[in-house]
Design a protein that fits this description.
There is one protein chain. By secondary structure, this protein is mostly helical. It has a domain of 45 residues. Helix content is 63%, strand content 0%. It has two helices and no strands. The longest helix is centred in the middle third of the chain and has 42 residues. It starts with 10 loop residues before the first helix and ends in a 12-residue tail after the last helix.
Length: 75
């Protein structure tokens, strides 16, 4: 099926084309807004929640470095 320009479509096909393109823009716009809200939440709100709970933001610094195990050679 050849690709037709919107000018070459019948009036009913033009309505369908406009609805399809409009739905496509609405879907991608919604996905972009959700992604932006998720990123903003992770950057601005999530770090402050750990501070409000009284937990350290980085648990590794609070506990200290992990102990190093060394191999023992038995003769």
């Amino acid at each position: 099926m050849p690709l037709l320009w919107p000018k070459e479509l019948s009036p009913q096909d033009r309505v369908t084309y406009r609805r399809w393109v409009g739905g496509l823009f609405a879907t991608y716009g919604t996905l972009l807004m959700l992604f932006g809200a998720f990123v903003a939440y992770q950057v601005m709100i999530a770090p402050t929640q750990t501070q409000a709970l009284g937990e350290p933001a980085d648990a590794i610094d609070a506990i200290g470095p992990s102990p190093i195990r060394q191999a023992v050679k038995y003769d």
